[in-house]
Amino acid sequence: MPVAGRIARDFGDATDAGPARGVTISAPPGARVVSPCAGRAVFSGPFRSYGQLLIVDCGEGNHVVLAGFDRLDAATGARLLPGEPVGVMGDGGPAGRPSLYLELRRNGHPADPRPWLAARS
């Protein structure tokens, strides 16, 4: 996993908008977030209601979307190594613990990221 924490919502869990397309990880305040793969940051910055968002092109048609950062440390176009720090979680504000959203997109379609992450560790 790109951040230490516990799974608050798993891929496929029921939500108001249908099955979850990613994993939500409840993380400690100030936790460091790392890149889950070697690749290139194809987007880094604020995006709609996601807040600070990072998209990493991991190759072979795989893109990882990470959202919920307090601070991003990877710029668009940066080459990333697996385990390289890419940002920091906030303090969670009045809602409590901060959450990192992780979505794996394989050839443009959401896929369960857990088997993919496990194969990389």
UniProtKB/TrEMBL annotation:
UniProt keyword Hydrolase, yes or no: yes
Domain of life: Bacteria
Signal peptide: none
Keywords: Hydrolase, Metal-binding, Metalloprotease, Protease, Zinc
Cofactor(s) listed: Zn(2+)
Gene3D superfamilies linked to this entry: Glucose Permease (Domain IIA)
Keyword flag Mitochondrion: no
Domain spans labelled M23ase beta-sheet core: 20-113
Matching PANTHER family: CELL DIVISION PROTEIN YTFB (PTHR21666:SF288), PEPTIDASE-RELATED (PTHR21666)
Protein name: Peptidoglycan DD-metalloendopeptidase family protein
